[in-house]
Design goal:
The structure is a single chain. The chain has about 220 residues and is α+β, with helices and mostly antiparallel strands. It folds into two domains: about 5-130, Ribosomal Protein S5, domain 2; about 130-210, Alpha-Beta Plaits, CATH 3.30.70.240. The chain contains five helices and ten strands. The chain has helices at about 35-45, 80-90, 110-130, 150-155, 180-195, and strands at about 5-10, 15-20, 20-30, 55-60, 65-70, 95-100, 130-145, 160-165, 170-180, 200-210. Strands 1, 7, 8, 9 and 10 form a five-stranded antiparallel beta sheet that branches. A five-stranded antiparallel beta sheet has the order 2-3-6-4-5, sandwiched between helices. The protein is elongated. The chain starts with 5 loop residues before the first strand and ends in a 5-residue tail after the last strand.
């Protein structure tokens, strides 16, 4: 069965805000396995061991097969569930979110807690950025110097990501292209270069592409 794209976080990051003197910090991290998610959770608990609560949720698997969450001492259903619901609404998997709370002395009530932990999860996802993991092909391509400007002009409008460009007696590009775009791109490349550019396909892998560029 061919691999299917899925959404995940682009990087580990965090953001914070204050609600009625309580400080909330939303942290997110991409995680390939449940062990990765638990390791991230342990790091956050150790770093914020003086916090009142470290509530979390994580989803693992391209088909979201593993879902776990915890209120970590907050009233049932007011923390972990709102966090995982935000993740599900964005379609994010292979990711973990921890929302840390430092209690500020003012009770928020059940509704206030749900809103605050929902906001914490949203802050975490926005800080990390959401991308789509697409089956992606990596290529090496060598060209002569006379074609440099023409190739650069061509590639800047193509659905590729140039990872490296090495200058020796020839110019060697390393670039990636989503498998869904691969055939059409190669046809345009062949046409533009009149068959002189002959990229070598090195590997196929999952890579994250920005959400807005992949839809």
């Amino acid at each position: 069965m061919p691999l299917k794209p899925y959404k995940t976080l682009l990087c580990a990051a965090s953001d914070e805000f204050i609600v009625n003197k309580s400080r909330f910090i939303g942290h997110g991290c991409p995680c390939e396995t449940e062990e990765d998610a638990l390791t991230f959770l342990s790091r956050m608990r150790a770093k914020y061991k003086d916090a009142t609560h470290n509530c979390y949720a994580y989803i693992i698997g391209a088909n979201m097969g593993v879902m776990r969450y915890s209120d970590d001492g907050e009233p049932g259903g007011t923390a972990g569930m709102p966090i995982i619901e935000v993740m599900k609404a964005r379609g994010v998997t292979n990711a973990a979110v921890v929302v840390t709370r430092y209690f500020g002395g003012i009770l928020l009530g059940a509704g206030g807690l749900v809103r605050a932990y929902t906001q914490g999860a949203v802050c975490a996802l926005n800080a990390c950025g959401v991308g789509v993991m697409h089956p992606t092909a990596r290529y090496l391509m060598q060209i002569g110097y006379p074609m440099l400007n023409r190739m650069d002009f061509f590639l800047k409008d193509e659905p590729v990501r140039v990872e490296d460009k090495a200058f020796t007696d020839v110019i060697t590009y390393t670039f990636v292209v989503r498998c869904a775009d691969e055939a059409a791109f190669l046809a345009r490349l062949t046409n533009m270069s009149e068959g002189t550019a002959q990229p070598l396909r090195c590997e196929e892998l999952y890579l994250a592409w920005p959400e807005e560029a992949a839809e």
